[in-house]
C-alpha cells in the first residue's frame, strides 16, 4: 500500500506508529472531504427537505470526486460498529451526520414541517438513507446522483408523483 502511495513503508510507520493511528487519520480526512462540507452547506437551508437535499448533493459531489473516501466511509461505519475502539469521537461520520440530522429534524418540528412525527425513527431513517447513498456513490458510481437528490426532495416534501399521475403524464 505504501508503494502505491509513492512513499516507503518506513515513512508510513514514522508518521503513523500504529494501524489505528493511520485508520483514524484516513477517517478524519474522509470526514473533512465529504461530511463536513455537506453539513456546512446544508445548515444554510430553511427547510428539512432542502437541508437533506443539499447535504446529499454536496456529499455526493465530494464522494464522486473521491470515491475512495466514500467507500471508506461506508466500510468504516461497519468496522466501527464491529470494533468500537476504532471510532474516533471527533471524526465519527455517523455521529456527525446523526447530530446534524437531529438538529435539522428538531428545527423542522419547531417550524411545523412535521406533524406528529416520532423524531427518533425519522432521524435514523435519514441516517440510513444517507449511508445507502454513500454506498451507492462509493461503490456503484454517481450517474443518477441529481435524479436521486430530486426524488428525495419530492419525497420529503410530499410531492412525489403517484403512479396514476405518472401514467397520466405519459399519456399526455
Could you characterize what this model shows?
- With 172 residues, the chain is mostly helical.
- The chain has one domain: Tetracycline Repressor, domain 2.
- Helices cover 76% and strands 0% of the residues.
- It contains nine helices and no strands.
- It has helices at residues 2-5, 9-15, 19-42, 48-65, 67-82, 93-110, 119-140, 145-156, 163-171.
- Helix 3 (19-42) packs across helix 5 and helix 4 (48-65) crosses helix 5 (67-82).
- It is globular.
- The termini are far apart.
- The mean pLDDT is 82.
Summarize the structure.
With 172 residues, the protein is mainly α.
Fold blueprint:
Blueprint: H1 2-5, H2 9-15, H3 19-42, H4 48-65, H5 67-82, H6 93-110, H7 119-140, H8 145-156, H9 163-171
Question: What are its keywords?
Answer:
mainly alpha
Helix content: over 70%
CATH architecture: Orthogonal Bundle
User: Within the CATH hierarchy, at the fold level, what is the topology?
Assistant: Tetracycline Repressor, domain 2
Structural class determined from secondary elements:
mainly alpha
- Main sheet makeup: none
Structurally, how many domains make up the residues? Answer: 1
Amino acid at each position: 500500500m505504501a508503494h502505491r502511495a509513492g512513499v516507503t513503508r518506513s515513512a508510513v510507520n514514522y508518521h503513523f506508529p500504529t494501524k489505528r493511528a493511520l485508520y483514524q487519520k484516513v477517517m478524519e480526512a474522509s470526514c473533512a472531504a465529504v461530511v463536513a462540507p455537506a453539513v456546512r452547506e446544508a445548515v444554510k437551508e430553511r427547510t428539512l427537505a432542502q437541508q437533506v437535499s443539499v447535504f446529499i448533493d454536496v456529499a455526493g459531489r465530494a464522494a464522486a470526486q473521491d470515491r475512495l473516501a466514500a467507500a471508506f466511509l461506508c466500510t468504516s461505519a461497519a468496522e466501527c460498529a464491529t470494533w468500537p475502539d476504532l471510532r474516533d469521537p471527533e471524526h465519527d461520520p455517523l455521529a456527525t451526520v446523526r447530530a446534524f440530522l437531529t438538529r435539522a429534524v428538531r428545527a423542522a418540528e419547531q417550524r411545523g414541517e412535521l406533524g406528529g412525527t416520532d423524531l427518533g425513527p425519522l432521524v435514523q431513517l435519514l441516517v440510513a438513507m444517507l449511508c445507502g447513498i454513500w454506498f451507492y456513490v462509493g461503490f456503484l458510481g454517481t450517474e443518477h446522483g441529481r435524479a436521486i437528490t430530486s426524488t428525495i426532495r419530492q419525497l420529503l416534501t410530499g410531492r412525489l408523483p403517484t403512479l396514476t399521475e405518472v401514467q397520466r403524464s405519459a399519456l399526455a
